[in-house]
Amino acid sequence: MDIASKVESIKDHELTAEENVKNFLEVIEEKNPRINAFIEVNKEYAIKKAAEIDSRVSKGEKLGRLAGLVIGVKSNINVKDFMVSAASKTLENYRGSYDATVIERIKREDGIIIGMTNMDEFAAGSSTETSYFGVTDNPAAEGRIPGGSSGGSAAAVAAQMCDLTLGSDTGGSIRNPASHCGVYGFKPTYGLVSRQGLLDLAMSFDQIGPLANDLYGIGLLLDVINGYDPKDPTTIESNGTSFTRLFDEERSDLTFGVVKEFHEVTDDPIVDIVEDTINSIKEEGYNVVELPFKYIDLCLPTYYLINYVEFFSATRKYDGRKYGYKIEDVCGEEVLRRIQIGSYISRKEFSGKYYRRALQARSLIRKEIEKVLKNVDVIIGPTVPKLPHKIGTSITPMEMYSYDILTVIANLAGIPAASMKIGKVKGIPVGLQLQAKPLEDWKIMKAMIEIESILKGRG
């Protein structure tokens, strides 16, 4: 059942919220021991909340927009009384003492939080192999990584363990696993969704966003979580666009941009599927423009230099005094690497050489992507440049970072971006990335709706 139909079925009491929860609990019990998408499942809480919703339905009371939908939450987002560990031993005993703003908004609309999803430790990774709680498998390509760092959130919806999930995206951590697991993932414009209650990886990049099997579900969750939050000074007033209303609108006249440099750094089998999709879009009469992007080689080093410094700063509170353990004493190799490099380049004698130059490069990249987007509505291209590797494969840090080369651009520039499934290579899902101007998130949603329609029409 699609998300829109399920919401109406629960409101009409054709499907009870409790039945929805119990159906997913059965799937989790069957699949999670193998896939390891959830670190924690709160069965009692979910059933209790579902029963409350069903009671309100029977009394004829009005329900919220999420009306009994079951939602998984990435383990770096605060949920009261749930384990908020960021998949690290550092916080293995920490229980959320409050709800993040996005969780408050989900609960207000009668969404049911079922559990906390697995992730790379402190979101520092692209494979969900660095979790203290073990590796997550990819339901869409068993034995391969699901991507990261929101790998548990992507795997949970791909394995149909819940209706929707929340992830966080610092350099591609929603879009990367969405591509690898064959689901939808959306990183909003920086500031469109509150970060209050999110454990920082790099505060100037981080954004919370939805993942789902169902495009309507992405729009619905975006409608619920977006908007100004007085508790987060980085948030901005949204323009009031309803993402779900876009499904009722007629075809647009969107202009698409294609950047050849994005294809040049991507493996050929992925490029072939992306180009087939682009050709299908052209054949439907849409205007597609080829555009240059000058600074592809600058993006990864710029992103990671800033990431290291901001992550080092964010982790100074994990000193073992107030809660948990001292992070340096118990963290994994990748987290320690980022802390040590961040500490080094934060020193007064090096900050000008590395960090300040990275900030200058970031400004250059932002201006370049604004230039690329000037005369087009949406840029389309590959989400990740290569297929997910087999779990346990020994790769270097730079090989791991290279998964992010096409996704970090949106975070550097603060623009919205998403990934949608467009095909498979050797049975492994491939995603199309869509990027737009700041606060034109709705154009990405509209483009996905229309591209999905094109692809379905062509079988």
SSE layout and pairing:
Layout lengths: L2 H9 L5 H19 L2 E4 L1 H16 L11 E5 L26 H8 L3 E6 L33 H8 L5 E6 L5 H7 L2 E4 L19 E6 L2 H11 L29 E5 H5 L3 H16 L3 E5 L4 H19 L12 H4 L2 H14 L1 H4 L3 H19 L4 E5 L14 H5 L6 H6 L3 E9 L2 E8 L5 H17 L2
Parallel strand pairs: 2-3, 2-4, 7-8, 7-9
Antiparallel strand pairs: 1-3, 4-6, 5-6, 5-10, 9-11, 10-11
EC number: 6.3.5.7
Family: Belongs to the amidase family. GatA subfamily.
Keywords: ATP-binding, Ligase, Nucleotide-binding, Protein biosynthesis, Transferase
Q: What would you say this structure looks like, in words?
A:
This protein has 459 residues and is an alpha/beta fold. The chain has one domain: Amidase signature (AS) enzymes. The chain is 41% helix and 14% strand. The protein has an 11-stranded mixed β-sheet with strand order 1-3-2-4-6-5-10-11-9-7-8, sandwiched between helices. Helix 5 (151-158) packs parallel to helix 6 (175-181), helix 10 packs across helix 12 (333-346) and helix 10 (296-314) crosses helix 14 (355-373). The mean pLDDT is 96.
- In DSSP terms, counting alpha (H) and pi (I) runs of 4 or more, how many helices? 17
Radius of gyration (Å): 21 Å
Question: How many domains make up the 3D coordinates?
Answer: 1
What percent of residues adopt helix (DSSP H or I)? 40-55%
CATH class reads Alpha Beta
User: Which stretches are poorly predicted, pLDDT < 50 over at least 5 residues?
Assistant: none
CATH architecture descriptor text: Alpha-Beta Complex
Total beta-strand segments? 11
Distance linking N and C termini: 20 Å
Q: CATH superfamily name?
A: Amidase signature (AS) domain
Shape: globular
Order of helices and strands, N to C? HHEHEHEHEHEEHEHHEHHHHHEHHEEH
By secondary-structure content and strand pairing, the structural class works out as alpha/beta
CATH fold annotation: Amidase signature (AS) enzymes
